[in-house]
Design goal:
By secondary structure, the protein is mainly alpha-helical. Helices cover 71% and strands 3% of the residues. The protein has a two-stranded antiparallel sheet. A two-stranded antiparallel ribbon has the order 3-4. A hairpin with a 4-residue loop joins strand 3 and strand 4. Helix 2 packs across helix 9 and helix 9 packs across helix 10. It is globular.
C-alpha cells in the first residue's frame, strides 16, 4: 500500500518521527513561552537547561545507579533549582530594563554551561538506555511503533496541557498573570511576588530539564544537543506568538508534523522548513498565529 506514491510504512514512520520531534518542540517552547509571557525574559539559556536535564539523568544513572523513572523526577528538580539560582543571582537585577539585556545574559550563561560540559565530557556524546518497561515496539498493523516514542508523545501532551491548565484556569495562574500586569497591586493582596517570579523561572527551567530527560534515550547526550535545538524552538515560539502557552503547544506539534512530511516529499528542505514557515507567518501576522496584536 502506498500514500502519495510512497510506501505507507515509510510515510507513517516519518509522521511519527515528526510527532516525536514536535513533542520536544512543544515542551521546550512551552517553557520559553511561560518565562517570556510571565517574566518578559527572552531565555536563551533554555537549550543549555535542556542539555543539563539529559546530562543529569545520565550522571544519576552512571554514577549513582538512579534509574530512568527516578531521574524523570530528580533531574527536572535539579535543573529547576539551578534556574532559581540563576533568577536570584542574575536575572532579578535586570527587571524593568530592555529585554535585550536578559537575552544577552542568558546567551552568555548558555555558552558557559555548554563550554563546561564540553570540557568535561567532550562532544562525542553519551548513550542512555531505554528503560526496560518501555523497550520494544508495538505492531499497529500499518506500522511498527517504538514504545518509548509513544511514551514521549503521551508524556509531553500531559505535561503541556497540564501546564496550560495551571496557568490559564487556576487561581495560581491568575495571580501569576496579574503579577505581570501590576506587581504592586498583587503584593497588596498578600502575594509574595518576588518568590512567585523566582518559582516561575524555576518551573520553566524544570520543563526544559524534563524534556532533556525524555530525549536522553532517543538521542546522544551531548553538550551540543541544546544549541542544536534552541534556534528551532525560538522559531516555534515566534510562529505561535511570544508568550502564548497554547500557541506554543499547538505550533510545536504542528511544525514537527510539517517537518516530518517535508522529509518524505523533499528531504533537502526539512532542516529549513520551520524557518520558511516563520518568515511567511511574520509577513502575514507579525504577532504570531496565536499572539495578541500590540
Amino acid at each position: 500500500m502506498e500514500i502519495f506514491g510512497i510506501p505507507h510504512q515509510a510515510f507513517l514512520g516519518q509522521l511519527m518521527l515528526g510527532l516525536v520531534n514536535g513533542a520536544f518542540y512543544a515542551m521546550l517552547s512551552l517553557g520559553l513561552a511561560v518565562i517570556f509571557g510571565l517574566l518578559d525574559i527572552v531565555n536563551f539559556a533554555h537549550g543549555a537547561l535542556y542539555m543539563l536535564g539529559a546530562f543529569a539523568a545520565w550522571i544519576l544513572l552512571d554514577k549513582f545507579g538512579v534509574n530512568y523513572w527516578y531521574a524523570l523526577l530528580l533531574a527536572p528538580l535539579l535543573v529547576g533549582a539551578l534556574g532559581v539560582v540563576i533568577e536570584r543571582v542574575f536575572l532579578k537585577r535586570l527587571y524593568g530594563l530592555d529585554p535585550l539585556y536578559g537575552l544577552l545574559l542568558t546567551f552568555g550563561l548558555a555558552l558557559i554551561l555548554e563550554g563546561v560540559f564540553r570540557e568535561l565530557y567532550g562532544v562525542s556524546g553519551q548513550s542512555y538506555q531505554v528503560p526496560e518497561q518501555l523497550a520494544g515496539a508495538t505492531n499497529l498493523g500499518f506500522m511498527i511503533l517504538p514504545n518509548y516514542r509513544a511514551w514521549v508523545v503521551l508524556a509531553s501532551l500531559v505535561v503541556c496541557l497540564g501546564t496550560w491548565y495551571l496557568i490559564e484556569r487556576t487561581r495560581l495562574g491568575a495571580y501569576l498573570r496579574a503579577a505581570t500586569e501590576n506587581a504592586k497591586l498583587v503584593q497588596a493582596f498578600g502575594v509574595n511576588v518576588p518568590v512567585m517570579v523566582m518559582l516561575t523561572y524555576g518551573a520553566g527551567a524544570a520543563l526544559a530539564g524534563l524534556a532533556g530527560v525524555l530525549a536522553a534515550p532517543i538521542i546522544q547526550v551531548t553538550p551540543l544537543m541544546g544549541s542544536n535545538l534552541i534556534i528551532v524552538v525560538f522559531a516555534v515560539v515566534v510562529i505561535g506568538g511570544m508568550g502564548s502557552i497554547m500557541g506554543s503547544i499547538l505550533t510545536g506539534l504542528g511544525l514537527g508534523l510539517v517537518e516530518g512530511l517535508t522529509r518524505v516529499f523533499y528531504p533537502e528542505a526539512s532542516s529549513v522548513v520551520v524557518f520558511v514557515v516563520m518568515i511567511i507567518v511574520l509577513m502575514l501576522r507579525p504577532a504570531g498565529l496565536f499572539g495578541k496584536e500590540a
